[in-house]
Amino acid sequence: MTRKNKVLDYVLLLKGSIPMMVLVAFGLYYFAISKTVDTYSAYQLLKKAEGKDAIGVSSGYTARRAAEVDRLYQRMEVDTLHWKNRLWNYTAELSRAHACPVASYPPVVPLNIMDQPLLMQTLAFKGNFKSLMQVLEAISKERNIGLVHSVRFRKKARDKDIVLSIDMLGKGKGDRKR
After folding, report:
1. Is 78-172 assigned to CATH 3.30.750.24?
2. Is the pTM of this model over 0.85?
């Protein structure tokens, strides 16, 4: 009886080997063959398209990017003759609505950035942080008054109000270079 236990049962081994082979085949396919086939098919697609167009440039992405740049240019375009008055009237309304008085309104400074003629106007408001953030948000969303170029918050040690300085950049209509 002990001898029979030590002898390998070949019938049982043959019955179990077929499911084991199936499991090994599925494992090989999943871990090696399927990934190789997917990579090879992607390589063939790239090889076919190599001569037609540049793959790295998507026409949809390029169109969306150009539309976004045009939208930014349109927000930045200002009427150079009336820009300072329009900006002053708008900031006066914001100042009254948010209880943040205008601290300074210096003259417009002409700039040349990368051969682009631009105008820079600095605005300064005094108030508490919440009101100043509401003013900044309103200015950044308004169209045709320029784009917010930089923002600075300052508070002197003994002063209770914070000073918000906003630099606005404007571009005269028709001055656009590409």
Report:
1. no
2. no
